[in-house]
Amino acid sequence: MTTENFASQAEILKLARVLGTTPERLSYLEKVDAAELQAFRDQVTDTLFDANLAALERMAMASKLVPSPILAKIAEKVFGPLLCARIAGLVDVSRGVDVAKRLKPPFLADVAAELDPRRASAIIARIPLGTVVEVAGELVRREDWITVGRFVGHLPDPTVRRALAVIGDEALIRIAFVLDDKSRIDHVLGLLSESRFRGLLQVAAADEDLWAPVLDLLTHLSEKRVEQWSHLLGELPPALRERVEETIR
Amino acid sequence: MAERTLTGQLGGPVPAGIEALADHEKQDLSDALRDARHRQAKALAEAGEEGLKYVPALLRGTVRKVVGL
User: Fold this and answer.
1) Is ipTM over 0.90?
2) Alpha-carbon distance A35 to nearest alpha carbon in chain B (angstroms)
3) Fewer CB atoms < 10 Å away: N or C end of chain B?
4) Domain check: are A127 and A223 in the same one?
């Protein structure tokens, strides 16, 4: 499978989630370019978020009247992850953060999977670090690389750095592959220590299933980073090193 | 009619690669989007009434008014 096929498949998974359907149903989209699928997914997401905007805005307004502990209970017991995700970008930021802090990490992970980070970035950026790390850990346990990848562009560096500590090397490679904003890859990998990056390359080298995603990851490194870590790339086994040299030169 | 077509629901043109799909494939995408919208509207309607049960009685009238229930 080529990198482009992988990218389209990742986009189909994301679109299926937005539409609440199965990726198998949408298999005919494999022939569509990944960038076009991403643009289409954004259109679909916007349509769904705007579809009941007036009602959601009224609910957000009413939420100002209700104490946070009660709102948190309503969020978990009645609203569920989908509606919480729809309303998150509409509530007052400090109120949203206060409610989010009271929700259990598995529920927040469910909300994260439904959320459009573009619309709730103010709240996301203010969720306490410990909570973000717990939610990231939960998403990694679920192998939900797509959701983690959608949030990377919306979290401050100290939070990303802490989250990286609970994300294993294989998970990190898979997350980078489905990242919404691949221009972030170089920056995020720059937060890793040299020994961590060496370990990540060793994990990739030992598993051929990770070659395509790791090659994709390396193509998004800046020239400066490639130069900085060229000695690590030189340590790769010959077969993978050859592929890396073909890909990034 | 607008609800039946993809561009009608999205309120504008779709990327060329989607436009180039077979008619039955575009129809399937349109059906999936329509179903998602209906599910969302239904969940929202149910949540409004159900959520009120958790709101303290004193506040319920005001909240009902603001939400428009």
Assistant:
1) no
2) 9
3) N
4) no
